[in-house]
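Lab notes, practical 5.
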Amino acid sequence: MNPLLSRLQPYPFERLKQLFAGVTPNPDLKPISLGIGEPKHATPEFIKQALSGSLGALAAYPPTHGEGKLRVAFMDWIERRYGLLLDPSTQVLPVNGSREALFSLAQTVIDASDRDHPPVVISPNPFYQIYEGAAFLSGAEPYYAPSVPARNFAVDWDSVPEAIWQRTQLVFVCSPGNPTGAVMPLDEWRKLFELSERHGFVIASDECYSEIYFRDEPPLGGLEAAARLGRGDFKNLVALTSLSKRSNVPGLRSGFVAGDADILKKFLLYRTYHGSAMSGIVAAASIAAWGDEEHVVHNRAMYRAKFAAVTPLLEPVLDVRLPDASFYLWAGVPEVWAGDDEGFARALYAQYNVTVLPGSYLARDTHGPQGGAPVNPGKGRIRMALVAETAECVEAAERIVRFVQGGR
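Output from the prediction step:
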């Protein structure tokens, strides 16, 4: 067996299952889960029709590179969303959801041949656990760059030692962030691009939440930032996105990557052997979804209304505020819990049958300021995924308020 598999840590939801083992939740209250970031809004009918109307595609092997119409659909959306013109034959590739692509891109990019000096993959902390798993199974060592609450959970790139940058081959960026909802501003992109230019590492920009935002200006994307800063060749930059959140089709497993043509050429070679071509019926539904914005605007409006209803309820009892984007609330637990996010989540589940995810499950212990004792930047926080209908999310928030007001 591959010995690197032993380095993988339990997924957050497995840890949550273990946390709740032996707990009998209040039977008088129906269960409400804010734990998993799985969209629950209805899938648009026109996407279903495009899927069912293309069953003839089952009779042919799909090309790994994707049909021309599919790649053009990606390019057209990028032009509408970011004002950028990409080459559909060299700068975009279909993927089976951003999760699959994040993992496989690391296997393409990382060179772990020098066993005396293993490469480094930098991830934000807290983070999406695929980043860590992708690093381990590529033969690299993950390095966790902390997010700073006082700076809207911006990643503290300045805290990364020079010796780490020198070994870095890949940096994962998540903007809008999971779980914080923070969007990386242009100045942060400038800093990261300069570091990439100096050290030669690849930037993988995870942008699957880019279309769920709460202010007038949409979140800045990695390709857009590069173009603004005169890096129109997108050197060492790959952006990854997905239809799952944008179009409420998590089961479709459809997305695309775009950016540096040289990297995508090698990524295509890897994917040819990996056997990850997108099904023709999924491609047909994807073309329809990327070509329509009306359902995206409607979806965003539902999230805005939901967050507008829920956030004011929770603000008086939790350290929480409206994020820049995404569908998560990243909340600090009350002082009476002394930073015990696990205990808070377990008691809430037992007393009010509401599931939230402890923030410490989404982060790793790292050294504190000036090399102090290790700290977990997710400790004392919880992630709430407001993915269900508004009424259910409001009811969950009301239960949380009663729970907090009841004390520990």
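Observations recorded by the TA: The chain has a mean pLDDT of 95. Residues 294-314 form the longest helix (21 residues).
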